[in-house]
Design a protein that fits this description.
The chain is α/β, with parallel strands linked by helices. It contains seven helices and 17 strands. The chain has a single domain, classed as Alkaline phosphatase D (PhoD) (Purple Acid Phosphatase, chain A, domain 2).
Length: 338
């Protein structure tokens, strides 16, 4: 087992980024996942544990609360927290995360969900959010973390796509679930400004940006950033303007795993790794267009691994894994030297 120490270096005046210095070594392992029904077998945790992650990131749908009754959400969080293998993970890795709709409390919900502040308390309790964390005193649940020692640092930015998000528009034809909301926003101005500062005040060699819903895919008719085209364009423009080193987007929600790539220009490409779900996926395979997809869609229970390696050729290895620690897909993103 790899032993590591996370040292809290305090909160920056203009940022919620928490500094976590791992013990000296040349690899950081980050696991992540989403879509976890507490009523279904919790048997994927041993495979996650086998990878000895330093960090585990929840990307939403931690539970399927779907209720205005906070006692329902609380009981499901407690059930998950009591799972023996999940408890082992909590002892081995730092667990962080962000919500999506089902743990937010309303399927496909946005800013008008009336219990969003109470739901936020449930999530903070589950994640053991420190009492002095800025996320406790501001609206929404977005935050950032910094791992490692300069110059070999990894920044994790987690975005809240629920608390401030405008209403999704149903497709009146019924051909798809949603159509684009041309004027709607996802993050809200306060979160947009925070994100800009996180990207500008940033010397990390690897930047992982997590969100419950997919950011790059545009064709499917379900929830995604492309349902709010102005926000998606604003996100890509902000990344292109600030140019964080080695940007890797991670997302959940879709009950599949897939990789997507979007080139902002010939020298700067965004890679998105979608991993979902931990307890359930599509019942069968069907064709779904994604012009940005790398390789095939994985329709098996899965979790994601980001293996950040600094020796020899610095790189991030993206692995789709599943039950029994089966390896379904592997892809490498190289870390720039500059």
């Amino acid at each position: 087992m790899k032993f590591f120490i996370f040292l809290l270096a305090g909160v920056l005046a203009i940022s919620s980024c928490r500094q976590n210095n791992t013990a000296s070594r040349k690899e950081l392992v980050i696991a992540f996942g989403s879509c976890n029904r507490t009523t279904q077998p919790q048997d994927i945790w041993p495979a996650i544990l086998a990878n000895e992650p330093d960090v585990f990131i929840w990307l939403g749908d931690i539970i399927y609360g779907d209720s205005h009754n906070m006692a329902v959400l609380s009981s499901k969080y407690k059930k998950l927290a009591g799972e023996p293998d999940y408890q082992k993970l909590a002892k081995q890795a730092e667990i962080i995360g962000v919500w999506d709709d089902h743990d937010y409390g309303q399927n496909d919900g946005g800013k008008y969900y009336p219990q969003k502040d109470s739901s936020k308390l449930m999530l903070m309790d589950f994640l053991h959010t420190p009492e002095n964390d800025p996320v406790r005193t501001r609206a929404g649940f977005y935050t950032s973390y910094l791992y490692g020692n300069a110059p070999e640092q990894v920044k994790v930015i987690l975005l809240d796509a629920r608390y401030f998000r405008d209403t999704v528009l149903a497709d009146p034809s019924g051909a798809r679930r949603y159509i684009p909301n041309p004027d709607g926003d996802i993050l809200g101005e306060e979160q947009w400004e925070w994100l800009r500062k996180e990207l500008e005040d940033n010397s990390a060699k690897v930047n992982i940006i997590g969100c419950g819903i997919q950011m790059i895919p545009a064709e499917h008719g379900f929830e995604k950033w492309a349902n709010f085209p102005k926000s998606r364009e604003r996100l890509f423009n902000l990344l292109n303007e600030t140019r964080p080193s080695c940007p890797i987007l991670i997302s959940g929600d879709r009950h599949i795993a897939e990789l997507s790539a979007y080139s902002l220009d010939e020298n700067y490409t965004l890679t998105e790794f979608t991993s979902s779900g931990l307890t359930h996926t599509w019942s069968s395979m069907w064709p779904e267009e994604n012009r940005y997809r790398i390789g095939e869609t994985i329709v098996k229970r899965n979790f994601g691994i980001l293996r950040i390696q600094w020796e020899n050729t610095p790189r991030v290895t993206l692995e789709v894994r599943g039950l029994g620690d089966s390896l379904f897909k592997e892809h490498q993103v190289f870390i720039p030297n500059n």
